[in-house]
Amino acid sequence: MSKRVLLINITRMGDLVQMGTLLQRLQHEWPGAEVDLVVDTRFAPVAKLLPHLRHIVSYDFHRLVDESRAQTKDVVTLYQDMTGWAAPLVEARYDRVINLTFNRRSGLLASYVGGKEIRGIAAPKDGDVTIHNPWMAYLTDVHHERRFNHFNLVDIYALGGSGVGPFAPLSLNIAPETAQWARDFLASHGGQQLPWVAVQVGASDPMKAWRPELFGQTLAALSRQAQVGYVFIGTEEERKPIQLAQTTYRKMGGTSPLCDAVGKTSLPQLAAVLAQCRLLLTNDTGPMHLAVGVGTPVIDLSVGHVEFRETGPYGPGHWIVQPDLGCAPCGFDRVCLHHACKDRLVPDQMAALCVHVLTGAAFLGSIRGARIYRSRVDEDGLGGTELYAGREDPLVEWYGRFWRRFWFEEFTGQASRVPSNPEPPPDWEDALAVLEHLTPLAKKLVSKAEELVRLTTRRPLPVAALQQLQRDETTERQQILALSMQASATASLAVAMVRDTHNDDGSELTGLAQARLVTYRRWQKRLHAVGAYFRSMKTFPNHLQRGRARALPMARSA
Predict the structure, then answer these.
(1) Given 92, 267, 441, 451, which residue has the most CB atoms within 10 angstroms?
(2) What sign does the dihedral 430-141-510-558 (CA atoms) show?
(3) Which pLDDT belongs to residue 127?
(4) For the domain that residue 339 is a member of, what is the CATH number?
(5) What dihedral do alpha carbons 292, 298, 304, 306 form, nearest 10°?
(6) How many CB atoms lie within 10 A of CB 557?
């Protein structure tokens, strides 16, 4: 009998497209698996473009949230409506439920449906949120140390929802009649032979959008170097910035024809239009992932709080431009008063990059104010990038590679094929000092956790001793975390330990104490692996270490 899998993905259009690799990986893991998807009604048309889905189950989660906030219905009534609708999912008895939406509501749904295995967020009846699967847990850690993360969301979904497997690009299925509609639509705006460049000026969040007038200047510069037409895409809500880009384009002497597809396509039609284009120049948006899914090259202008390694275009054939600025990308919780990162992207240079992608013409020898990356498939068969122009901070470059290898080996138990760093990090001495300081503290913390377990088994229960020991343990953990966050070599471990302590699960006092002990031992083991790697760098002077690659010791999870 075929395995049955339920996916829950109810947030954004881009997230749906980005789980395409997971759908293919599930078929590699379980050939013939029957995969169903729970999706918000607004994005059901996109879901129909995805391969390897048996049933698409839609529900108006947007309305559920609105009614909950507006209190037009009490919470009990709202969730009675949802559980009534979800009852057939319970009866399906899934082998695996994969929740890719990280909030309590989706966790309640995942727990209500149940299954032999749940991956992602679950929320049992007691209301606590738990995260199942280390990759899914890692996804919640990324935002704390995001400058060092080298895992695309596409791969986190695939590794967490299934596992390691062959590289699988994102793909969408365009119906023949929809593809013909797109050809006819573009033909009516300038002829079938004209190479089209799609342009996405807007974004769901203004922080993620490049300045409209700079889009216009870029398109005008490109029109003087290549015979192309421009297809403007987006929603009616984005009409104002799109008009500003078009007005600037005309003022700057742009002569290429403009095709206005704004608000004129369904989502499947938009995907079909993008499939007819030679290039998409865009902010980090849902349509960017649609373009990737239909095989159209993308130039991703990664501004604001966008970290392209998390959500950038997946697989080979795409380009990313990131401002070279100390605060870029900024945090999601930051309020930016200047948006200076957007001014680092120079229109003439962006036009030159477009010409390079479209025609293969030589690109500029240097670039000012930004870095350009090419997307690729890395040595482990995951999506990756390589620096094409500009300079990356040495600390960010070193630890990005280090943590990429470390977490891959930690979570998969397999050696990474990504080459290790040939020399120590710029902060090696300071990092080693922190590691040496943390080693005895880790031993002490684990010892206290072991004593807590022992005390919980004594009868009568030594309440006062337990309370004092717990206070001591909490104080020492806080000291360890404060010290760990001071070094790039230990901060990621600390973030993972904090999340693990919140994820501890146990049905009674001893079970809770044992779960905490497992968490501390896991952290201690990871700390030991990192410490051993850094201490091994003492063996050779710096000038002899250049070009010498070392294998990273694997610290497999307990």
Answers:
(1) 267
(2) negative
(3) 60
(4) 3.40.50.2000
(5) 30
(6) 13
